[in-house]
Design a protein that fits this description.
Elements lengths: L3 H5 L12 H18 L5 E6 L6 H5 L4 E8 L4 H4 L4 E5 L2 H4 L8 E7 L8 H11 E12 L1 H14 L4 H5 L7 H10 L7 E6 L4 E7 L8
């Protein structure tokens, strides 16, 4: 697991120090991909890990939710005031062990895994807290996206440089798929798709009964 010193490296939430137009467009594309995956489903419970300071994605999905929970180290007062949403102000690694088994219909990790030193234990908890019949949705930057993201951040200043400096990994299908299987997700549950012009990889994991292979 991540050490206390490594936890301390992440002292603020995404968006707490402002977001750029590039970042907003990226969040919009992620939201569209998630909404297409949900297919108009309503009344479900959702967990947004690394939801960001303003919990933008979780708040955008609120009309579809029965209940939503966000986790990040700092959450804005406006997000806290949103009806039907609750928040845990903590690192993801510290928050997940305290969440109940089979508690959520939807678990989201949008641009999160690349910031984690040890993603495997986090993914194992994602499986544990997911209900059969639900889904885990993951968005990560690809190795192709690495050059674009770093150019945008370090050369153009169009994205926060500190976010890129916090990246520990990039993912293509051959990186993410075995990690998901090691965490306990069955291969038949996993669907991987490149999006955002190949700069990101989107994983849809449909949770079946724990003993089921289909």
């Amino acid at each position: 697991m991540t050490t206390t010193a490594e936890h301390a490296m992440r002292s603020h939430s995404y968006g707490e120090r402002g977001v750029t137009l590039v970042d907003r467009f990226g969040v919009y594309l992620s939201r569209r991909a998630i909404e297409r995956t949900l297919g108009g489903r309503k009344g479900f419970s959702a967990l947004d890990l690394g939801c960001g300071y303003h919990a933008t994605l979780l708040r955008a999905l609120k009309p579809c939710l029965g209940q939503g929970t966000g986790v990040d180290v700092r959450i804005s007062p406006e997000a806290h005031a949103a009806e039907g949403l609750s928040f845990v102000e903590s690192t993801i690694e510290d928050a997940l062990p305290g969440l109940d088994d089979n508690a959520f219909d939807l678990v989201m990790l949008t641009s999160v895994l690349e910031h984690l030193w040890e993603p495997l234990p986090v993914l194992e908890h994602c499986l544990r807290v997911s209900r059969p019949g639900g889904a885990v949705l993951i968005n990560v930057p690809t190795w192709r996206g690495k050059a674009f993201l770093e150019f945008s951040a370090f050369r153009l200043g169009a994205s926060p440089a500190e976010e890129m400096d916090d990246h520990k990994m990039y993912y293509d299908q051959r990186d993410l798929w075995p990690l998901l299987v090691r965490a306990g997700f069955k291969p038949s549950w996993i669907h991987l798709k490149y999006h955002k012009f190949g700069l990101n990889l989107f994983a849809v994991i449909r949770i079946r009964e724990r003993g089921s292979q289909s």
